[in-house]
Design a protein that fits this description.
Length: 331
């Protein structure tokens, strides 16, 4: 099969590799669509070549189900990126992200993937592969799970800091749920995408002071909810400034060390800060239901590339020129 290999130093190549062979309890899936994720940029910009690639948001068709009783050839499926062991209590509850022996799926920018049969999600006929990959992966999964924790009410102001794919997904979900969403970024194209997926207002942090802008837009009240989707300490610090009294900050960006003043930033204003990682396998039917009630999930994919041009996809994504890029694996 053909597969992308990330070489580091912002280089990617497409190579021929042996087809994966499904083990007992596994199925073989022919991948149709594989989405690019911001988390892949570390490897892309790094200095080491990877065995394959970091793709983990695919959808496709089961082509060998002989090792499984759950699936049949021809079934259309999305693949959950976090492979729980399938045996422990968390896995039994449909929460693979809490499994202490989970592993990540292998590089999904490839023609085929062999995977445990319990990590597949069924795609009904009214869900195309692109939407399927969004519903079964980070694209909608992360914003949906965040929204389950943020619990803003209709009419609340939600500020989204950072308009990469995760920020855009949060804008889409929060605006669909009735929040007034204000999006902040420093890239004009991303602010345009933010408006496209539902932001009522946008703030260009390269041109104005975002704190002053949010104060003005909320008559000094600030936001009931803030989603931090930059993953850099300055984004987290800004999120803490933009949240109003008794408000909540959701951390979607993978920050490492940050500083905060517990007294001033949290205690004296009753602020809640929480982290939210990926989504729970069991949440898929709820996300499918939201899609069927009109959530325009497909808008999150802004550009498409055949596998042969995946290098262009990485470059455009790294430069912030596109929202969520889709790799059309079989073309
Ligand atoms: Zn991801
Ligand atoms: Zn487990």
């Amino acid at each position: 099969m053909l597969a992308a290999q990330v070489l580091g130093g912002e280089r990617v190549q497409v190579i021929e590799v042996p087809d994966p062979v499904p083990a007992a309890g596994q199925v073989l899936v022919r991948l149709e669509v594989s989405l690019l994720c911001g988390s892949e940029m570390h490897g892309y910009r790094g200095d080491k070549a990877q065995a394959t690639n970091g793709g983990h948001e695919p959808a496709g068709v089961v082509v060998d189900a002989s090792g499984s009783r759950r699936w049949r050839m021809g079934d259309r499926v999305g693949i959950h990126a976090v492979w729980g062991c399938g045996q422990c209590e968390w896995c039994a509850r449909g929460i693979y992200t809490f499994c202490s022996s989970f592993r990540g799926c292998p590089g999904a920018h490839a023609g085929l993937m062999a995977c445990p049969d319990h990590v597949l999600l069924p795609l009904p006929d009214d869900v195309d592969f692109e939407v399927g990959a969004l519903l079964a992966g980070d694209g909608l999964g992360v914003p949906y799970h965040t929204s389950q924790r943020l619990r803003c009410r209709g009419g609340d102001t939600v500020v989204v800091v950072g308009c990469g794919p995760i920020g855009l997904g949060n804008i889409l979900v929060q605006s669909f749920r009735g929040a007034r969403v204000i999006a902040i970024d420093r890239v004009a194209d991303r602010l345009a995408m933010a408006r496209e997926v539902g932001a009522a207002e946008t703030v260009d942090a390269s041109a104005v002071d975002p704190l002053e802008a949010i104060q003005e837009l909320t008559a000094g009240r600030l936001a009931e909810g803030v989603v931090e989707a930059t993953g850099v300490p300055a984004g987290f610090a800004l999120a803490l400034k933009l949240v109003g009294k008794a408000g909540t900050v959701a951390c979607c960006g993978e920050n490492r060390d940050v500083t905060l003043n517990v007294g001033n930033d949290l205690i004296r204003r009753d602020i809640t800060v929480f982290g939210s990682w990926f989504f729970h396998f069991r949440e898929f039917p709820e996300m499918l239901d939201l899609y069927r009630r009109g959530l325009a999930v497909g808008k999150l994919v802004t550009h498409r590339y055949p596998l042969a041009r995946i290098g262009e996809a990485y470059a455009d994504f790294a430069a912030g020129r596109v929202g969520k890029p889709a790799i059309l694996v079989q073309s």
